[in-house]
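Hello Y.,

Per our agreement to keep a running log of every chain we model this quarter, I'm adding this entry. I've kept the format consistent with earlier entries: sequence first, then predicted structure.
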Amino acid sequence: MVNVAVIPARGGSKSIKLKNIKLFCNKPLLVWSIEACLNSGVFDEVWVSTDHKDIAQVAEANGARVHWRSEESGRDEASTESVMVDFCNAHGEWDVLACVQATSPLTQAQHFVDAMRAFQRNTAADSLVTVTRQHRFRWTDAAISAPLNYDPVHRPRRQEWNGELHENGAFYFVTREAWAASPCRVGKTPTVFEMPSFTAYEIDEPYDWLILESIMQRLHDRVLGGSGGGVGGVGGVGVGGGDGGGGVGNDDAAAAVCAGTVGAACAAACCGVAAIGVARMASTGAPAFSLPTTPALTTPLTAAAMSVPRRSRSPRTWSSRPMLTRAGSSGVQSL
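Predicted structure for the entry above:
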């Protein structure tokens, strides 16, 4: 079975200019997704679909192959499906195609491993969608509103409600048969792969960049003993403990990052930390935010598998790269 990953990365991003190669924690944003795909060992080929020479250079320098997309699929109004169609017209030799979003840099190699394993076990599924579990109370958009998913008279406590699954856009799998029947990343019989709640964030706006960089840097600083520059250059934006009165969308973010990505040192250093600070966020004019933690995600972590082989540009050559991991219910997850 041939598994191929394609990462759409055009040069015309609007809210953040050339965001796909803007440095995110000291690496071009795109590189986090490329490395996760390569390190997973799941994919026979990893491609970047782009229309920009600088993005192409970054992709090739980090082990990905480059598909030069058509002018039509690089326009502002072009859909992800049109990008996938453009790619498939040129590269049709695959059994499972993964569409991976460069704007989800917290997607880890182990997420691909676990998702592909689950997808292969579920023989009835023709596609896979990544989701996160959220505990948000939804309302209708009307002059007189009404709740959509709960009864205000019997407002559930978090522990009494399993929440809802929301598509997070991190990546998608689709089989050749499903794609041939209808060129859509989601087929007729999809399954879902639940990811840690912190992966609900995507980088679309400067706000998102600050939040995600802060989470990743703080975790690295505390696990690796850094003082603020180990991963990136963002200081001040904090992740605080708290509780959301109306349900929490990206709930348990700080602890969930630990649960999905870091080793034993993080249990004490990160999960118990509240309110690291919001000075940087305040300086941008953005409102302060609070990301709560829960005991369920502060269970003991292990430091197993602290390194995994990383595929270099030559498929026969491997090099060792330090990885931060946790043995969880879905296997070892790495950062």
